[in-house]
Amino acid sequence: MEQGKGTSANAVNDDQPFDPLDMHHYRIERLPKRDQTPFEKWLAIIGAPLALIVFVLFAFVIDLPFLQNLDISRVVSAEAQKEFLRIGAEAFSRSNTYMLAIFLAGLILWITQAIPNYQTSLILIISLVLFNVLPEKQAYAQLGHPVMWLNIMSFVLASMLVETGVAKRFALWFILRFGRNASSIFLSFIVINLILSAFISATTAKAAILLPIFMVIAAIYGVRQGEGHKNFGRSIVLQNLLNINLGAGAFLTGSGANLLAAALIGGAIGGNIFFSDWLFAMLPIMVGLMLIGYLLAMRVFFPLAPEERIPQIPGGMDRLRTEYRKLGKIKPNEVKAIIIFAAILGLWATDRIHGISPTAVAFVGAIVALLPRIGIIRWNDVDIPWHLFLFSAGAYTLGAGLDITDLPSISVNAFFDHLGIGDQTEFWKIYLLLTGVMLFSALIFQSKTMRAMIFIPIAIGVANRFGYSVLSLALPVAFLIEHVYVFPFNSKPAALLYETDRYSMTDAFRFGITMMVIAWLLIIIAGETWFRFLGITPNGVFGLF
Fold this sequence. Notes:
It is a single chain. By secondary structure, the chain is mainly alpha-helical. The chain has 24 helices and no strands. The protein has 2 domains: 38-144 and 385-534, no CATH class; 161-329. The protein has helices at 38-61, 78-87, 89-112, 117-130, 136-140, 146-164, 166-178, 182-199, 203-220, 231-249, 256-269, 275-301, 316-326, 332-349, 351-354, 358-370, 386-405, 407-419, 427-440, 448-466, 470-478, 492-498, 505-528, 530-534. Helix 1 (38-61) runs antiparallel to helix 3, helix 6 (146-164) packs antiparallel against helix 14 (332-349) and helix 19 runs antiparallel to helix 23 (505-528).
């Protein structure tokens, strides 16, 4: 395969043949950029004018009765009640109107990608200030949200894994030790994803670490760029995409969105959601889903032809052994990295005992890693995607606006009142509704953080309305945050792995939507069994929560 001439600073010299087993070809910056589909281009064109029209309509034209003449009895949030008393009923209703308009306009911009996501976030932040939904200090302070700091420290720690080579060494060693055939290679990536998820709070970082390894393996088994999609390529990329996200869902620290959801729930119950709580509840379920995904991919969606079950490049696995040997003997800095991460994981797992937050633990770990002479990594070697943090800051600011206006609870109450649903609705009907909406909302939302900001407060509001435990509804909803593997725009790892051109959007949809439905069924079954045992859903007997 010949590389395009002069297309990139990273382009391969045309005088040299393309080596499909060279891991450097699969670095993120070298992946070919996928052209937008006609539908995506159309969305980008109409996004900005549509967002502006929707904002004007909902802010100044359309009068929604449930937002007019609000009284304090309909306000649940303590912060919103304070705001109601401070500014009065009329101004509070107007703030809710502006909040809804800004939220809808921002959602359209995020989904259509009419402008970069970080620019949308900046527009949201200043809009909430200019329309007096949030005071300036509160709006701008979201850049210092504890979860933001956890993400920054996590990227420091992830960079430490990359720079020292610990993550690559572990992944290569595991594949070479246990990946004796095609089936065992896929199972090995399940274990690798789980272990990396326990240490790395950024799914994009995990994808960047693993992508060159599984792309080389795909090449060894006969998958080539520009030669069409083969089932081995489809399976190895889509299974890794699934497992990168499911692995994050197994741990409270698996992503910033998990921690944000836990913080929202903890604030509502006046307590904490601990690392061990989340681990007990979700690790078995996520491991089960990974194994189901493996079986469905290998036997139903992408069964391997006989020739795909054996290496197609003679000595291909020897190239991986060569890459592993290049790492040499384990170095002192690698030992330091392992010790730091073991200490971090130990402190995270015992947070119920010592009470130190995951953010504080990551803070200390990052400081140790950056210390001169003692540490492992220099600040200039840390890869922090600041545009992602600006994007997250906009989502957190939007969440603060939703909290101070109590728009989710007010909307929930109006919705149920309109349907004539009384306060005696059975728990399981509400459980099915909330978990289903949360899960399948991932098909249209681009941000896990946004989904947490929107649907966790809604679940809390519904629980308060119907008199159920906040944990019983909000926590199962939070457990579904990481199911973002169907469309390329659903998450950063999904967008990144789609650029590999190893599968089509149809492949991803068929496999992904099936896994989402199975995940919903499992969370329903868990609600009647495992979550009851743990004391999350009603009639629990274990009482962990």
